[in-house]
Amino acid sequence: MDLSGKVAIVTGSGRGLGRAYAEALARNGAQVVVNDVDAAAEEVAASIGGKAVIAPVGSSETAQLLVDTAVEEFGRLDVMVTNAGILRDRVLWKMSDDEFDAVINVHLRGTFTCARAAAIRMREQGSGGSLVLISSPAGQRGNFGQTNYSAAKAGIAAMARTWAMELGKSGIDVNAVVPVAATEMTRTIPAFAPLIEESERTGAPLPAWVRRDEGLGSVEDVTGLIVYLASDASKGVTGQAIGIGGDRLALWSHPAEKQVEFADGGWSAEEIAQKLPSFTPETYGIPAPVAP
């Protein structure tokens, strides 16, 4: 997976998964623009020979600054990884407007503005590229206390499918990555928090069944997928939601009609009341891990 000659931007890469993505891309030969809201971006950039941009994502101005920095420092842009994110967890009836808007601005709007700026530059270059959009199991399944985060991450997966259609003729692949790793953010997920805390308390690695059955491992376990999607080996893989974590690699299904019934002339409320209970309902929520 030689990325020599490629230039990547990774938002939110001063720590956690984003840092692991930036370091892995650099190890495989890419020049990387490291972005975060504080000096952690400079530390990472210095360690990998990249360029730091300290700015919060969300605005068009930050997105353009990131792209301009990549072009000015390294001459081009080939990969945009939209990883930056925050949490403002609270149940629906307690969530404030500001808590909702803050998460939507960073995750959903930040992905939109950064991907748009990158797509414009990649189309001008005429040599294709890759947009790697970081989603979450919460966006695929829903998660208690994460109205804002789940909505944003579901929207990111939907944008990946839409942009794959729009950018296909330009040779720009667009995929959503659904990572699971032991980070400060996954610590807030009730299903995973006890496993992470126990591992940190004892110093022992996560159990094999957790890595396999739950797909939960270290941040480094996720980086192979990012490197692959940045490489020429993934050319033509687009419009997908791909899960990665621990020992697990998965392709998520897209929403589709599961069961269909027909009624001549349409359906009345009474007829729906008789028919719909016979359908098999879909499950929802991130299930709690169960040890074998």
TrEMBL record:
Assigned protein family: Belongs to the short-chain dehydrogenases/reductases (SDR) family.
A Pfam family it matches = adh_short_C2
For this UniProt record, give its keywords in alphabetical order, as a comma-separated list: Oxidoreductase
The record lists the organism as Lentzea flava
Name the UniProt record assigns to this protein: Dehydrogenase
Locate the Ketoreductase domain: which residues?
Answer: 6-183
Please give the InterPro entries that the UniProt record associates with this protein: KR_dom, NAD(P)-bd_dom_sf, Peroxisomal_Beta-Oxidation, Sc_DH/Rdtase_CS, SDR_fam
